[in-house]
Amino acid sequence: MPHAELYRSGGLHLTIIGMAPKRSKQLQSRPYPANLIDMNPPPIPHPHFPTARTRREFLFQAGGGLGGIALAWLLQRDARAAAPSANPLSPKPSHFAPRAKSIIFMFMVGGPSQLDLFDPKPELEKWRGKPLPESVGRPMSQFTKGNEALLPSSRVFKRHGQSGMWLSDLMPQLAGCVDDLCYLNSCWCTSTIHASAMYELHSGRTLMGYPSLGSWVGYGLGSVNDNLPAYCVLPQPEGVPEGGAPCWGAGFLPAVYQGTLFRKGANPILNLKPPEGVGPEEQRRTFDLVHKLNERNLDPADTELKARVASYELAFRMQQHAPEAVDLARETAKTREAYGLNLKETADFGTRLLLSRRLVERGVRFVQVYSGGGPIVTQWDAHDDINRNHEKMCSHVDQPIAALLHDLKQRGLLDETLVVWCSEFGRMPSSQGGKGRDHNPHGYTMWLAGGGVKGGQAIGTTDEFGLKAIDKRISVNDFHATILHLLGLDHLRLTFRHDGRDERLTDVAGVVVREALA
Known about the structure:
Layout: E1 2-9, E2 12-19, H1 25-29, H2 55-61, H3 64-82, E3 102-108, H4 123-126, E4 157-160, E5 165-168, E6 181-187, H5 194-203, H6 213-221, E7 231-234, E8 260-261, H7 280-297, H8 303-325, H9 333-338, H10 344-361, E9 366-371, H11 386-410, E10 417-422, E11 426-427, E12 439-440, E13 444-450, E14 457-459, E15 461-462, E16 469-471, H12 476-486, E17 496-498, E18 501-503
């Protein structure tokens, strides 16, 4: 029967599984020492395994194929361990000259209504109270069947700026910035369900487990700031969106590229402050010891551990630099007032947008800011009353967004910062319950500003009812391809090998919306 025997040669102990050799009675009765480390028993002869002086020599003697493979693996592992660990977030060259260096990505959770904000449809008034014509079809959504009465917008639309861009009375402050905005009026996606549509907008797929846009950007470009995260996420204090953490997760990319959550309050990053009684010198010595231990035991293939090590090292540096970055008291009273920090309805979102500006100013690559999350009363999900919902949600974001655009322009940062306003889908032209609107993935509006974008224009159109995108249709893949292009990344070349396939953010689709480029 197979058994294990211990061979000792030159201080090397090897356990070999094999067939038991025949032994003499004298040998079988000889007791083994209790401690093989401190004592030297006589070697046991074995016809198939000559004495080996080293582990590598033993592997070669065990068989050329096995020994060669094992030795190659050992040498490769030792070489990787001896080499200095490279920072996965170090700056990387773009594929071509970028138009933008960083992104402030504003996500409106729940689905704002394009019909009541950016895309007026006077034709709806003629069909008030009637269902869509049969020629259009009966588009079903999550809670409606497509035969409901059409609901014209009650908002007042006006043209603004030199470009004459349409905007409703829900966004009076943003009206002064329309010449910097590029409306994408013909966006569409594939899901009417919040979570799956959020995954699609964030990662290009309707399933969780794929890298988010911010993670792809960090993977492709790295970070220009060693003391702050490359990818920061600022959620609604009441809670995160339905999609949860996968919306800023790294998926199959190394975990170091996932987003870092910033929370409400004076200390947005948890556990950043050292414990009481721990001074900087003690903290430094502890960090150096942990760093040495990690370097000795780190498996290059263990991306989770590498991400944890990198996060600890970053956290140590952030203890010195992050407090200054998140200290809004350093801003002037005029700036804080412009962002609405002195008003109850705008204080929260204004605080997060002002913090976003401070972060990109210090080299943070990607900042993701949510309006809405948690309970449905804090979202843009206007199933019951479109006017009541949007009046509340717009009052939270209108002034801060306008302040952000003015502030970036005044500081010379708008040209290199891409500002994105987006959501998982839009709203239906028909009514739900008389005053609300259901989800519409067929045609809705998102917009871009700054960062190489040609402002003062609307790209694409929807039909006369505001239901479906019909001209220059822009898919989520197209949307992502355009954002990457503005950062100097070719979405076809930004790939990662996963399960034998070169994966990319845009999967097998995506065309850059070149009309949006300045």
